[in-house]
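Contributing new records

If you add data, match the layout below exactly. Sequence lines come first and carry their own label; structure lines follow with theirs. Keep one chain per record. Anything else will be rejected by the validation script.
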Amino acid sequence: MKFNIFILITLICFSCKSPEARKPISVKTGSFIEQSAERNKELNKKEYNYIKKAIINKSNKEYIASNSGFWYSYITKSDTLTYTPKFGDIINFDYNIKNIKGEIVYSKEELRTQNYSMDRQEIFTGLREGLKLLKSGESATFVFPSQQAFGYYGDENKIGTNIPIICDVTINKITINTNK
């Protein structure tokens, strides 16, 4: 009986102890993320330089650098129309996708005429931003670096990892969203 009381008192004394915080096994300093960011900056810089040498500087077209990080050149430009698409507008357009050498990857026939609700549907970043620059009836050639196109994953079909692309885009019609 005395042994049971001793065990009971011992358990009560030790069970009242507050839990102690455990120290982490390893500490992450963020160096991997910093190294990855630096590596990506270097890759992007090389890609931009390649695009400038291969396309922009050797082309007989005048390319404009966009604020979004791609280049474009008008094929057909309208001096009379002033409206560019806004949020929710429906854009009816045709486009193709070429590789950096100018070879067709996806033709206009393969991609078919598209109806896109501005900023309400998924479309790759460069094309979404490029459509915002064009008016109804205008056509342009866009040169998108990989991060503005299909990026690290590609399109999982014909466009590989980190591949810059060229798109010829024609806006057929812009239907203004009246429910803004």
